[in-house]
Fold this protein.
Amino acid sequence: VVLERPIQIVNILNGAVPMMAIRRLLIVADEGASLKLLLCDHTQNRNVAFVDNQIIEVYAATNSTIDIYDLEESTPLTKRTSMLFARQCSGSNLLVNNVTLANGITRNDVFVDLTGEHSETHLYGMAIGQDNSHIDNYTSVSHNMPRCHTREQFKYLLDDHSQGAFEGKILVLEGADKTEAYQSNNNIIASPNAKMHTKPQ
């Protein structure tokens, strides 16, 4: 199955009292399948505290393609955590793009296991920090098989008293010959009070 149009899931948090939303997404792409998924998180009431948690599980079968775009536009009182676990088979292609436009406290974790040869992983992120917001992105990619490719690029723009963090780990196991992996984190600090923490591994 090749989906011609992307699937869009819109989550809107709005209410007069504090609220917590929890969801689990399971994405299975069978052999040769292709899909694009757009996740949009929005918070509408700036005066109420919200907690937003999600777990995404991804299985990419042989020669499948999965693109995931995860966009957050929330409020300073919103706390959001997102964990993505992916397993890729031979020849599969996974793209994950995390975009944080407005937030309170955000933590995005991405764990990828490359279990088949000639698979590709592309992890991208963009974050805009303002006021006292905190944006944390953590990635872990395990190259278990030969001839796989990983590319990571995360960019932050931090202003006011905002803080950002990026920690990326690429693990190449014994026998994963001809691995090709790249990792980059570019940041603009627009205020003397903003801070960025970077830890490549």
Summary: DSSP finds no helices and 14 strands in the chain. The mean pLDDT is 96.
